[in-house]
Amino acid sequence: MKSNLGILSSNSNSLNFLTSNNLINYLNFDSVASRNIEDSKNIAAMFKFKKYYGSYEEVISDKDVDIVINFLPNPIKFEYTYLMLKAGKKVISNYPIFNSNSDISFIEEIISSEFSKNLFLIYNYDYSRLVNNKPKNIIYTKYSNNSFGNNLSSMQDLFFDKSPDLFYLLNHFKNEDIKVNVIKKNYDSLYNKLSYLNAFISINDNLNINIIIDNIGKFDDLLTISNHNIINLNTDIVTDNKKAYNQMDLLSFIKNNKTFDNYTFFQYYPYKLFNEVINV
After folding, report:
1. Which residues are CB-contacts of 148 (< 8 A; sequence separation ≥ 6)?
2. How many of the other CB atoms lie within 10 Å of CB of 22?
3. Do both 111 and 216 map to the same domain?
4. Are residues 110 and 248 in the same domain?
5. Which residues of 142-172 are buried (b: 16+ CB within 10 A; e: fewer)?
6. Tens of pLDDT along 138-171?
7. Each residue's pLDDT tens digit, 253-277
8. Residue 230 lies in a domain
9. Which long-range contacts (CB under 8 A, 24 or more apart) does 25-30 make?
10. Contact status, residue 174 vs residue 274, Cβ threshold 8 Å
């Protein structure tokens, strides 16, 4: 028997996810919600959802909905994820699950409760390849492009929201000896957001990572790393119009109540680490 699906928002990521993963074969399309009820109505007709709503809260209170796809914008994504988990629904989301220190205060409750098994993070990129390759030295860079420009409101997103592969890697070493040396950091005084970071991370004095995050286009020289076994990463994680990398786990999550160690909260430890280091 298929579970009933609800979906939040009318953005293209959510709708593309339905089709690229053929979810109509595994779920009953029950409810769609948007803050514009006309958008919901149009999507319901297009994808054959039974119901449409003009608010996200109506999906939360809909007892017919078993599973919800939540690809809402980062500032409000965790709030609705938390409310849906509390309402007993299973949630499928994308990176990042949370986006602020206020969100972190609720993470322990979710991790230590039965809620955690009802939250699934989809991957559209093989984050594990860094761990599997067992690198010794990494150069990790992220730069603003034309879509960001000098948009100060997006500056912190480039680091905390656009670097899931780095956060996934660091999470695997959260119980190890990690040393962070910040070489240079800049904040925009108006928005108080990180605009530039040049840092060096050493893990067990064995793995070395040089990180440069640059939202303002002022490229500083990379640090000198001791040996030549270097993996150079300058990645852009593309999440549109792609099948989930962990689709088999996703289908198992949809079909039963199996608990997955799929690192849904893999950003938790690195997020706290960097907040402690760069916000002093």
Report:
1. 154, 155, 158, 215
2. 11
3. no
4. yes
5. bebeeebeeebebbbbbbbbbbbbbbbbbbb
6. 888 887 754 444 454 454 557 788 888 889 989 9
7. 998 866 666 788 898 999 888 888 8
8. yes
9. 26/2, 26/251, 26/254, 26/255, 27/2, 27/3, 27/67, 27/254, 28/2, 28/3, 28/4, 29/5, 30/4, 30/5, 30/6, 30/62, 30/64, 30/65
10. no
Assigned token pair, 225: 């790393």
Q: Are residues 211 and 86 in the same domain?
A: no
Which residues span the domain enclosing 180? 129-237
Which residues, other chains included, contact 150 with Cβ-Cβ below 8 Å and sequence gap of 6+? 144, 215, 216, 217
Position 155, amino acid: M
- Looking up tokens 């989809």 gives 122
Same domain, 61 and 138: no
- Looking at the domain assignment, is residue 271 inside a domain? no
Residue 275 lies in a domain: no
CB atoms within 10 A of CB 179: 10
Number of separate domains in the chain:
2
Q: Which amino acid is at 60?
A: I
Are residues 152 and 212 located together in one domain of the fold? yes
